[in-house]
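Worked example 2:
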Amino acid sequence: MSAAAQEIPIMNKSLKRLIDGNHRFVNSTCKSLVDYHVNRLSTIEAQKPFALILACSDSRVSPEIIFDQGIGDLFVIRVAGNILEEVQWETIKFGVEILGIDAILVLGHESCGAVQATIEKADLEIPLIREQISKGISNLTNINYAAKTNVRYVVGKLKERLKDKNAEVFGGFYHISSGEVEILSETPVPLHALRPPPPNPQCYSPPLKLK
């Protein structure tokens, strides 16, 4: 997906700032002279993050890195499957009401293990995570399509809860294989209309098994 191939126009300034940072990450033009010592000192008295990210806990999905941001720029919540439960909701409320954040990005990703475990009904003790993901993906079996559907489900829940707040909610999907973040439209493209991507052995997800 090229930089111009986002599904929806980028109108929100905070979201555009995220996407601009992701373009730098993809093109290896990240801010190379960030002085984290100065960055840290400048945030001692207060934090003023410009966006909130609800992302998966996957170690390959690090919002500050893939969006090329520094200390104090992002208010990040990470949980397997980027699900929305009460503890995540209360954290989001804090970000919106106390920190004044007006842009929220729910970020799913390619080859999500939590989504895969839910689809395959793997024998893993993660009942709450699987329950929440199941509500969003129903009987889907394509892992990446289901992961995008799960993002849209969480976005819908958040929009309903935040309808009286001054905050916009967006959905995103991180392509581990390319480094690009795709901004999702509210209406998905039907699975049968999608052209299958070429095989990528680096992102292959074998069936989950307990050791």
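The chain has seven helices and five strands. The first strand starts at residue 51 and ends at 55.
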